[in-house]
Write a structure and sequence with these properties.
The chain is about 20% helix and about 35% strand. The protein has about 450 residues and is of the alpha+beta class.
Amino acid sequence: MLPPRTPDSRAASLLAESAAAVDGGVMTHAEFFRWLDERREEQAQRVERVPFEALRGWDFDPHTGDLRHATGGFFSIRGLRVRSGFGPVREWSQPVILQPEIGILGIAVREFDGVLHLLMQAKSEPGNVNGVQLSPTVQATKSNYTRLHGGSAVPYLDSFRMPDPRKVVADVLQSEQGSWFLHKRNRNMVVEVGPEVEAGRDFCWLTLGQVNALLHHDNLVNMDARTVLSCLPDWRYASGDSARDHTSALHKDLEIRSWITRRRAEHDGAVELIPLKDADGWRRSSDALSHARGLFFSIVGVDVSSGRREVPAWTQPLLQPHGTGIAALLVRNIGGVRHALLRARAEPGFLDVVELGPTVQCAPENYAHLPPADQPPYLAEVLRRRSAGVLYDTALSEEGGRFRNAQSRYMIIEVEEDFPTSAAEDFRWVTPWQLDALLKYSHHLNVQARTLVAALRTL
């Protein structure tokens, strides 16, 4: 039995009080939205899709077809060959984003009149559907914070590079999208700072309650902020409540950990980097690298100009998904405790083979050509429940620095108590406390599941 993960009493109290403060504090809701409108006006950027030949500093390698930056930094688009023991398709090849560096996603927290506030940033990204979204205090790749682009320094970075260990609230490596990145990880951090840290022009102090409320707005809190929020200790559980949750779980903690380990050990598959030109079924035109059937995603080029970024103008490739994704979590009461149905997912880009994802995670358009038996489990159940039992239903953007107009419909759906607790081997019912315990560790919950954990805590 794992020891309970209970934040120390001071941190638990501060987080709970901050979560209860849904308006007021340093900035009211009305003041926040006025501030956000001003930021959007000041950070207006032009993003224009361009042919590959117009990408400055980027080129396709004449021998491999790989798309790389002239510096060798930032990221590259490579080919990936995948063999999997699970799913309706057991072997395929695809483009993949290779970015072999660990970025920093960090939120600074500080007390104002005894109430903890989070320092959030209004940040424009070229791939965002609406330009500016709310991001962490620091959102930077290593190429960014080492200033490979030749731009200005990343504000507040020093609070996260070498923090006082006594001030660290959360610090864990977490993955990004395993279907689009190969082994991409970021350091997710929450660090307490003092009165010397003030909000700059594009930053604001918000309570946890305010940020939680903003999670219910479409395309407002960005993916990087959501993953960091999920890594906070779950403030909702006092020691007595966590003990009840712990003993009332359908599956004990050791069973869950053993199940994850078994799924990883039994996965019969392999991934191999290959020249991009050898990715079967993918075709390159003057302005897109796309699948021959028009499915999955395309790689496109964009030209960006922005007066409020570290670099005022640049070009880059972006991955543009085809269709809107669905990331849905089924929840139900079991033995007086809410449980969520998680799926062990083997995505080719995961460093540790398998991570836990939502009950359903897919773009339905990519499965439309497959027979009913090969449709994602529970997808029909999710689509059927468009209103009944829906606790959360919000359109949220994926990372706008690498993906163009990538949105998913994030849903939490409560099912009836006669809904089966038995499930296929890929699925397990997990309590919020168990989710919180797993988030102490790297590579256990994927980025979509982490967004839904953050959303679940707002209900």
